[in-house]
Amino acid sequence: MDLTAFLLATLVAHIGLAIFVTAHAALTGEDAGNWPYITLALGLAGVAGYFFYDEWQ
């Protein structure tokens, strides 16, 4: 795969995942916090963090 195509596909995927995190938070009434930005930077790791990260209370 061409490097440019790979980077473009990765960018599109991360943007899509960030939109998913934002939409899910809006639909469920949750606060997305910084997770959309983390998802833009880290992709699936950001999505996993959004769903599984529990703040210490």
UniProtKB/TrEMBL annotation:
Keywords: Membrane, Transmembrane, Transmembrane helix. The chain crosses the membrane at residues 35-53. This is Uncharacterized protein.
